[in-house]
């Protein structure tokens, strides 16, 4: 796996960079709708793009009935995301996913199962998914997950701050979360389905990056609307603006509702066209998913054999 990009330092709170921003929603929707039709990737190239997508997956289980056994099975899939015969046929032995993402109490099980692999454990924290527990408890949860061995922390923002335009409060809160993460990388979940407008999404993205987020992430997966291409387009344009203003490269993670190999292709095309090839590496791009991996494996089996197998023939994450 590619080494992480250096930790982001963030900036001082600078509302001048975003307060006057207005996102043209119809234009964003038109641009997003064109992504899957403007670029065609077939045969060996498609297989290569799907293999790249695997390396960027944060293989995730965030269910109320998670157990140590389920996490161990998830980690086994993370270490060997393709069936051995397919990996050999494609020359992809040793391929792994980008990370395994679990709840804080499941972190020790994941750390033990992934020992010696180099695959990082990511943990959600800060009262996921609502993020409405008292701030001291949210910060303590971050520290707990890091103490248990999590190398990446997926925090959730307080949506009220974004909805009421209290951007200074949002900045201060995320900044404290960033400090609580210590050496662990921090992904800021914006819960974009709750933010109502693409303009709010852009502004929240800029504030999260100013506060030092290493990644910005679309969704918890628990909102009514999760990752969409117009939302993702808005966020990657914010990434590009922030890079141009500061020279800092912040990562992007779409999550929630991404289930198919086609989704993997569409979001990679978005990254390629808007930000370039460097942003397709796992230190700058992750996909929060579980069932997507099974569909990618099915498409790669078709590439190797010329036949589609039933979905149940591929182990679910």
Textual characterization of the structure:
By secondary structure, the protein is α/β, with parallel strands linked by helices. It has a domain of 211 residues: Alpha-Beta Barrel (TIM Barrel), CATH 3.20.20. The chain is built from twelve helices and eight strands. The chain has an eight-stranded parallel sheet with strand order 7-6-5-4-3-2-1-8.
Task: Report a brief summary of the structure.
By secondary structure, the protein is α/β, with parallel strands linked by helices. It has helices at 25-38, 43-55, 68-79, 84-90, 107-113, 135-147, 159-163, 167-181, 198-210, 229-246, 261-275, 291-305, and strands spanning 57-60, 99-102, 121-124, 152-156, 185-189, 215-217, 251-253, 287-289.
